[in-house]
Design goal:
The complex is a heterodimer of chains A (253) and B (330). By secondary structure, chain A is an alpha/beta fold. Chain A has 9 helices and 12 strands. In chain A, the strands form 3 sheets. A 6-stranded mixed sheet of chain A has the order 6-7-8-3-9-10, with helices on both faces. Chain A has a 4-stranded antiparallel sheet with strand order 2-1-4-5. Chain A starts with a strand and ends with a strand. The longest helix of chain B has 36 residues, at 45-80. Chain B has a single domain (2-324), classed as ABC transporter involved in vitamin B12 uptake, BtuC (Orthogonal Bundle). The two termini of chain B are 33 Å apart. Helices cover 75% and strands 0% of the residues of chain B. The chains are: A alpha/beta (253), B mainly alpha (330).
């Protein structure tokens, strides 16, 4: 079992503290939603947590080893990362972009063999992209592109996945499709940490919710434990009624 | 796809044909039998001289200069994720050319024949490093191109200054030759001096080409899938700097070839920067050999410079490529 264990992580940029003494764990078989307003430090926590950025304090262990001791390829084989901004520089074929998920396994684009080719085929299939495999990415819709990026992350077949706002700017149907994909990844034994702004969807899909505000993790637990009207008021500054899994946001507090 | 698998054989065949044609053609055309005899050591001394001392070294110079600029262009485009990046556009060629001129001007070149290539490479590396530093600080490619424009202008101004201060007309014409770029009157000695740098640079770029594919996803996702960004940047900069420096040492500043060739190659290699490197090198080499044949056959009173012709064709192509770009991620 691979797990990501972040302990007392602090990250500063000049005089500003982006992440303040944050600790959490991500294990396989869990769907964890990371919530918080813009600027709460979610992306910084993720980046420092998986070792893309050096923390000022605290440490982060991936499969028991400090992430900073791992080579980028070793890290990538254990944790797939879907960043918030996903530019594509060239209009490659869908299959080639998904093949990049196998980069850390040493696979060259366009000449995948054996296990690599099978993993890419599985990822294309799971994301409903088999028919689009040879299409150029500049001819795809936003929803299709989002699935291409998910497939790229799944193709790595890493035990853990970190996705930063994977459903931003998607229509409701596409949002469900992406979250369903992540859920089936979790059901097959993966562990996912997903940044979400849709609280309703987070409550519906996530087995655990981590709430962040001003760089600190203020709550970490199931939706039943942590999703309350007071929490929404504290975190987002909104008045809301919480009725089990149903949330009615009434406006800014 | 047959179109894609045919690409390399077609490019290699066309390159060989172009170099042979370059030996045939010239102020006096050599018939096939005399050319073949001269190539393989027969024929009379005059024919051998024309082929081995004049036409063949010139054609090979044009080819390897083109190949160096083509592979550097393709690699820099992959690194900076932009089809407008190229040693010429980014000011790398001009900076290399400036340093080479310095070596000539201050007579360092007369101390050792390695002075000019090494000076050119230092200029190329410094400019490439500066561009990459800028690339780390900004996501905007427009900024990079503007820095390239600034570097080119500065190198041009510094060369004008050197010309202004030139002690005699001979060193003045030496400098102008560097600025304009040419492969006329090159010998195998000069080729052997520049070739190691071009080969080393090309080999570095080739060995690290996979990372360029990863950069298709942007830097954040590229490091996410396991690319060592720092290492990739250093290798691409050093590789492109060595190759461009070698090319400038051999032929002076020749711009825009490195932009046109990768642009034409990309659709054939599925827009993968890694797979575009070698075909781009072959195509740029081919373009320069053909352009150089064209120059030699043109009945102009003074022979045109290769760099001038390359810019006359390449600059409009640059504008065309820039206009075709959709306002994407910059």
């Amino acid at each position: 079992m691979t797990d990501l264990s972040v302990e007392n992580l602090t990250l500063r940029a000049g005089a500003t503290t982006l992440v303040d003494d944050a600790s959490f764990k991500l294990v396989q078989g869990e769907f964890v939603a990371l919530l918080g307003p813009n600027g709460a430090g979610k992306t910084s926590l993720i980046r420092a947590g998986i070792g893309l950025q050096s923390a000022n304090d605290g440490h982060s262990l991936l499969g028991g080893a400090p992430v900073h001791g791992l080579s980028p390829a070793q890290r990538a084989r254990q944790i797939a990362y879907l960043p918030q901004i996903r530019p594509l520089a060239w209009p490659n074929a869908v299959r080639d972009v998904v093949s990049l998920g196998r980069f850390s396994h040493g696979a060259p684009l366009g000449r995948l063999k054996g296990l690599d080719a099978e993993a890419v085929d599985r990822a294309l299939e799971a994301c409903g992209l088999t028919a689009l495999a040879s299409r150029r990415t500049d001819t795809l819709s936003g929803g299709e592109l989002a699935r291409v990026h998910c497939a790229r992350a799944f193709a790595a077949e890493a035990p853990l996945l970190v996705a930063d706002e994977p459903i931003a700017a998607l229509d409701p149907r596409q949002q469900f499709r992406i979250l369903d994909l992540i859920r089936s990844y979790v059901n097959q034994g993966g562990g996912a940490l997903v940044v979400l702004h849709d609280i309703q969807l987070a409550a519906r899909y996530a087995s655990r919710m981590i709430w962040m505000k001003e760089g600190r993790i203020v709550a970490d637990g199931s939706s039943a434990e942590t999703l309350t009207a007071d929490r929404l008021k504290d975190i987002y500054g909104v008045t809301a009624r919480v009725d089990g899994p149903h949330i009615h946001i009434e406006g800014a507090a | 796809m047959t179109r894609d698998t045919l690409l390399m054989p077609v490019l290699i065949g066309a390159s060989v044909l172009a170099i042979i044609a370059a030996c045939f053609l010239g102020s006096t055309a050599l018939p096939a039998d005399r050319l073949l005899a001269a190539l393989f050591g027969g024929a009379d001394a005059g024919d051998r001289l024309v082929v081995w001392q004049i036409r063949l070294p010139r054609a090979i110079s044009a080819y390897i200069v083109g190949a160096a600029l083509g592979i550097s262009g393709a690699a820099l485009q992959g690194l900076l994720r932009n089809p407008l990046a190229e040693p010429g556009v980014l000011g790398v060629s001009a900076s290399a050319s400036l340093m080479a001129t310095f070596a000539l001007y201050y007579g360092i070149a007369s101390i050792t024949p390695w002075a000019v290539p090494i000076a050119a490479i230092i200029g190329a590396l410094a400019a490439t490093a500066l561009i990459t530093l800028a690339a780390l600080r900004t996501q905007s490619v427009v900024t990079l191109i503007l820095i390239g424009v600034g570097l080119s202008s500065f190198a041009g101004a510094a060369m004008s200054l050197l010309m202004n201060l030139a002690p005699n007309p001979f060193s003045l014409s030496d400098m102008i030759n560097w600025m304009l770029g040419s492969v006329a009157n090159r010998s195998f000695d000069e080729i052997t001096l520049a070739a190691p740098f071009i080969l080393a640079g090309g080999a570095i770029l080739f060995a690290t080409r996979r990372g360029l594919s990863a950069l298709t996803l942007g830097e954040e996702a590229a490091s996410g899938i396991g690319l060592d960004l720092r290492r990739q940047r250093i290798f691409t900069v050093v590789g492109a700097g060595l190759a461009t420096g070698g090319a400038v040492a051999l032929a002076g500043a020749i711009g825009f070839v490195g932009i046109v060739a990768p642009h034409l190659i990309r659709p054939f290699v599925g827009y993968d920067p890694a797979r575009s490197l070698v075909p781009s090198a072959l195509l740029s080499g081919l373009i320069l050999v053909v352009a150089d044949i064209f120059i030699r056959l043109l009945p102009t009173s003074a022979e045109l410079k290769l760099g001038v012709v390359a810019a006359l064709i390449g600059a409009p192509a640059f504008v065309w490529i820039a206009m075709q770009r959709r306002g994407g991620n910059d």
